[in-house]
């Protein structure tokens, strides 16, 4: 089996190792580029959101490289995401590309281990458990490394990026859990200590693919780092897996409790997380909140309205940015600069602190 | 007497008569917002982001118009109907949207419909009146309005027929659909929509319908399948930014290619001009007439 799956930010490395653990040969598509997006846009329905287009382009590129079994994440039913693998399979069939596309839906760990993974890969449940455990271990290291890199970026962007590259390479090369632990220790040791506080701290919330895939979000974290802003986010492949497979992501429960004040019933997607995390960031005293989502995203558009209210209630600046294939990086940077400047000024004046005290 | 407001948008276009009777029987003064106008829409535009679809902007406008004059805002939250058939995420989020925009004097009553339609309404009645006898009597007096159609529409031969495949909240809204229906009627065409079909057809599971898990999208798709060999043209009206429609209309378009029936898709939003719509529809009418001849 020559398996392929679309890029998923830094988590790609862990996913690749996961498929290899299950005995598949992985044909990794090249990291998404302008060409990927062009291919995706050409074959997508007009008003579909950016993640569909990028992942479709990615899948087609991996077919060009000789993949025969494709994997695509699938979601729950309220959001369009639940249908993406179905529509993509149809598109690929119409293109005359013979291949099998599996939608990996949000199973519980039990279902994945006993039924789905053995069915697809022909492995024993024990091996599926082993592979999943290693996936969790690797993604947890990546999660930790991502956070380190985020803390480092405002101080030394070049060093942070090289650390990220080296770290991902090391994790990709690990063959055993012991090696994974070694990499974790090495990473911790290699992180330079800084005590200087960053200019501002900005929390990013929003749609998960946009947040985790640097190509889709025009490398927003890097750009913010360049502006001297420390980025805080709570989303990662590790957290996502913990939540979906094991229902044991503790931050999610807190988010759900916070968001409950504003949302009676989740409109699907990640609205609960988006709103809950934004509230937590505001309570933690972050200086600003960026909300990023794909253009025409249904759930996040509802979150947008609620976030405006959250921003008002907690006196924290919130900026919502939507992304599609026409998003220009220059335009994005201009807006980020303005936002960071505004947030920094607000912090200087100190109104943020006073208002927060009034709110709590 | 306390006043309950119902925005004349979205679900009102299907359940409005039931809600009106039910709430009146409960002893409230029911105030339904006036028909959508340009002013309504403009009020809505100022309240929600520019990216959401037209129906949401319209409902925001109606809420804006009502919020000062009513004590309660009745906005049932449809999450899913029958076996886990979901509503669109935006529809689920509407009551939350309303809660953050209305003043404190106005309470949003949002019975949560998950599968069962009746119980949430009874519970909402209890929330409003706290009088079980009255709630039950109001339900008995209004429940006949929930009955769905059971007869097939009359499809006479010799008349040119077109099917408008769109959501009831688009077609039911005067402001959105008037120009479209007027143009088609003036051209001598008879218009059918999914509201003319009995529930048994709309809930069908043949073909792709089974994999469509949005309740109203499945209805659209089934209506499309039903009409595809019975009418001379199909026109899908989609509001810009409608998520589910962007997928399902794509499927219909692909299927229509193999069916030999004229199919057109009109995308509408608040900037849609009458002239543009009429031009496109006239071209479509020509196609329909040719289809009849050939």
Describe what you observe in this structure.
The complex is a heterodimer of chains A (360) and B (294). Chain A has 360 residues and is an alpha/beta fold. Chain A has 3 domains: 2-106, 3-Layer(aba) Sandwich (Rossmann fold); 127-152 and 156-193, no CATH class; 198-359, Rossmann fold (3-Layer(aba) Sandwich), CATH 3.40.50. In chain A, 59% of the residues lie in helices and 11% in strands. Chain A has helices at 12-21, 34-43, 50-64, 84-94, 109-121, 125-152, 157-173, 177-190, 208-212, 220-226, 237-246, 250-259, 271-284, 298-314, 329-349, 351-359; strands at residues 2-4, 25-26, 69-73, 100-104, 200-206, 229-232, 288-294, 318-323. In chain A, strands 2-1-3-4 form a 4-stranded parallel beta sheet, sandwiched between helices. Chain A has a 4-stranded parallel beta sheet with strand order 6-5-7-8, with helices on both faces. In chain A, α6 (125-152) packs antiparallel against α7 and α7 packs antiparallel against α8. Chain A is globular. Chain A starts with a strand and ends with a helix. Chain B has a 4-stranded parallel beta sheet with strand order 2-1-3-6, sandwiched between helices. Helices cover 48% and strands 16% of the residues of chain B. Chain B contains 12 helices and 11 strands. With 294 residues, chain B is an alpha/beta fold. Chain B starts with a strand and ends with a helix. Chain B has 2 domains: 3-146, Rossmann fold, CATH 3.40.50; 161-293, Rossmann fold.
- Give a short account of the largest sheet of chain B: 4 strands, parallel
Distance between the termini of chain A: 56 Å
Radius of gyration of chain B: 20 Å
* Overall pLDDT level of chain B: 90
- Kindly give the count of domains of chain B: 2
Specify the oligomeric state: heterodimer
Helix percent of chain A reads: 55-70%
Q: Report the CATH C-level class of the largest domain in chain A.
A: Alpha Beta
């Amino acid at each position: 089996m020559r398996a392929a799956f679309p890029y998923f930010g830094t988590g790609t490395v862990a996913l690749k190792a996961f498929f290899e653990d299950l005995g598949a040969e992985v044909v990794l598509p090249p990291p998404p580029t302008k060409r990927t997006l062009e291919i995706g846009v050409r074959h997508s329905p007009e008003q579909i959101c950016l993640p569909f287009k990028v992942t479709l382009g990615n899948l087609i590129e991996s077919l060009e490289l000789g993949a025969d079994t494709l994997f695509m994440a699938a979601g729950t039913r309220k959001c369009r995401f639940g249908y993406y693998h179905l529509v993509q399979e149809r598109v690929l069939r119409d293109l005359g590309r013979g291949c099998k596309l599996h939608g990996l839906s949000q199973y519980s760990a039990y279902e994945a281990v006993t039924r789905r993974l053995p069915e697809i890969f022909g492995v024993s449940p024990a091996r599926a458990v082993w592979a999943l455990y290693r996936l969790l271990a690797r993604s947890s290291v990546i999660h930790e490394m991502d956070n380190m890199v985020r803390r480092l970026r405002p101080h030394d962007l070049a060093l942070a990026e090289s650390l990220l590259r080296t770290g991902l390479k090391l994790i990709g090369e690990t063959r055993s859990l012991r090696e994974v632990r070694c990499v974790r220790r090495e990473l911790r040791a290699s992180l330079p200590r800084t005590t200087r506080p960053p200019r501002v701290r900005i929390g990013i919330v929003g749609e998960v693919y946009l947040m985790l895939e640097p190509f889709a979000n025009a490398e927003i974290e890097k750009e913010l780092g360049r502006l001297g802003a420390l980025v805080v986010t709570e989303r990662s492949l590790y957290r996502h897996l913990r939540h979906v497979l094991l229902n044991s992501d503790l931050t999610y429960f807190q988010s759900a409790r916070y968001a409950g004040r504003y949302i009676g019933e989740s409109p699907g997607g990640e609205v609960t997380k988006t709103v809950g995390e934004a509230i937590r960031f505001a309570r933690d005293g972050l200086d600003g909140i960026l909300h990023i989502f794909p253009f025409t995203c249904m759930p996040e558009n509802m979150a947008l309205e609620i976030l405006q209210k959250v921003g008002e209630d907690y006196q924290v600046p919130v900026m919502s940015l939507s992304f599609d294939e026409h998003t220009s990086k220059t335009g994005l940077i201009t807006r980020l600069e303005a936002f960071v400047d505004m947030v920094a000024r607000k912090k200087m004046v100190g109104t943020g602190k006073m208002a927060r005290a009034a709110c709590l | 007497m306390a006043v309950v407001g119902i925005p004349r948008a979205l679900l009102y276009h299907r359940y409005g008569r039931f809600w009106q009777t039910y709430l009146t029987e409960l002893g409230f003064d029911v105030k339904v917002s006036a028909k959508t106008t340009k002013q309504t829409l403009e009020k809505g535009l100022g309240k929600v982001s520019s990216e959401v679809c037209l129906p949401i902007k319209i409902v925001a406008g109606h809420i804006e118009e009502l919020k000062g004059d009513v004590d309660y805002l009745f906005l049932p939250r449809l999450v899913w109907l029958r076996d886990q058939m979901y509503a669109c995420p935006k529809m689920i989020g509407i009551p939350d949207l309303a809660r953050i925009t209305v003043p404190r004097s106005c309470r949003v009553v949002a019975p949560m419909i998950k599968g069962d339609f009746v119980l949430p309404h009874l519970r909402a009645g209890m929330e409003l009146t706290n009088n079980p006898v009255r709630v039950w009597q109001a339900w008995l007096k209004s429940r006949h309005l929930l009955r769905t159609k059971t007869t097939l529409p009359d499809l006479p031969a010799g008349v040119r027929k077109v099917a408008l495949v769109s959501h009831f909240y688009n077609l039911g809204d005067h402001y959105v659909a008037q120009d479209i229906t007027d143009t088609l009627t003036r051209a001598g065409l008879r218009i059918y929509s999914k509201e003319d079909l009995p529930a048994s057809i709309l809930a069908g599971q043949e073909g792709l319908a089974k994999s469509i898990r949005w309740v109203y999208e499945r209805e659209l798709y089934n209506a499309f399948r039903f009409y595809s060999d019975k009418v001379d043209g199909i026109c899908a009206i989609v509001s810009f930014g409608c998520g589910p429609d962007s997928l399902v209309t794509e499927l219909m378009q692909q299927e229509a290619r193999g069916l030999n029936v004229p199919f057109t898709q009109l995308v509408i939003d608040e900037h849609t001009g009458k002239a543009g719509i009429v031009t496109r529809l006239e071209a479509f009418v020509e196609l329909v007439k040719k289809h009849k001849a050939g």
